[in-house]
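Quick one: co-fold with manganese (II) ion.
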Amino acid sequence: MNELQKRLETYKRLGLKLTPQRLAILEYLENTREHPSAEDIYNALKDRFPSMSFATVYNTLEVLIEKGLVKELSIDSSKKRFDPFLHSHHHFICKQCGKIFDVERNFDILIPEELKEFEVSDFQVVFSGLCPTCKKK
Ligand code: ZN
Ligand code: MN
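Sure, here it is.
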């Protein structure tokens, strides 16, 4: 079973209605590591699904987030970006082109003294700067 099939099983188990448009949105998310925005997804699929509205894309993403199948990234201050990869990982955002890259590395971070009384469940390291392509320009 490949990743997509596994996901489809999960969606069925959660009782998500899988319309062709929803499937296309899921497939698109599954096949990109660029952390697209809702607009990016809509623009990539609108030719294939002329009747699909931006609201459909947005609502599908909302459902996926609610079900915990997609993460919403707030790294990009101009728009929400989406990540179907749920394992703990970090990111680099290019300040020029806005691309978000995955950083797969474990950072050993000491929990700061101020948080001693808290239960920390997650943290994220965000690097920013210029990607190799933008650096060359
Ligand atoms: Zn760039
Ligand atoms: Mn990511």
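If it helps, The chain has five helices and five strands.
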